[in-house]
Amino acid sequence: MKVTIIEPPRTFEVGLGEIVQMRDCAHVSLAVNEQLTLFTETGAELDVARKEWGFYATPSLNSRLPRFGLRGALLKNRLGHYFVVLVETGKEPSFLEYLRVEGLQVTSWLDDDGLGRIERGAQLP
Question: How far apart are CA 7 and CA 3, in angstroms?
Answer without folding.
Answer: 13
